[in-house]
Design brief:
Order of helices and strands: HEEEEEEEEEEEEEEEEEEEH
Number of domains: 2
Largest sheet: 4 strands, antiparallel
Distance between the termini: 24 Å
Helix content: 25-40%
Strand content: 25-35%
Number of helices: 2
Shape: elongated
Radius of gyration: 26 Å
Structural class: alpha+beta
Length: about 250
Amino acid sequence: MENMLLVGLSRQMALARELDVIANNVANVGTNGFKARSARFNEFLMPQASAEGFKAPDRKLSYVIDKGTPVDLSQGVIERTGNPLDVALRGDNFLVVQTPQGERYTRAGSLSINGRGQLVTQGGQPVLGEGGPIQFGDTETGASIAADGTVSTNLGTRGKLRQVRFANPAALSSDGTNLFASTAPAQPAGPLARLEPGAVETSNVKAVIEMTRLMEVQRSYQSMANLMSKSDELRSRAISRLADQQA
């Protein structure tokens, strides 16, 4: 009976983790450039049952363990905005931004110019060009971004957006404000990396599927809670009857 409670607890922990992942996806349905994550779990077989007192050979117990939350890098819908500083990324390329913790990567291409004349993301992080942060003067006008990432104003070219890709997207981890960090070095995206000016890539979260999955996981969690509650009640009754017999 103790084994059943432990197995049930491992399942509840897995379901709670999956609920967190789905809830985060749903919360970011309207976040430009957001990439959905999914929960992955493995079966872990204990070599023998805990507190097994029978003469028969020990039976393996099947537990649930967290295998990670891989990111889905599939393309989101491209939405036209008409803003000359908006860019939608096509393919597996990322923009590079500067943060206090070092370089981070994003697919969110809704850019603007801050009060210090820097090209920044919606979160205020400077966007890096091939030569560093892209800076504008006070008198410059008509800022725009071309399909190859070249940034220009009425005074000429101001730089070219640095674009990178990753050989192993599984190395990417979320770092808040729609940014990714990576344990593996980024690679240049190459000359084929293209942007779509005047547009943004919307979230790739499929809202209907995520909401349906959210309800399924909630029901599974509640069913497991009910099962564990009944198991605990059954154990209490067994202990009570044993006590009565001994008395």
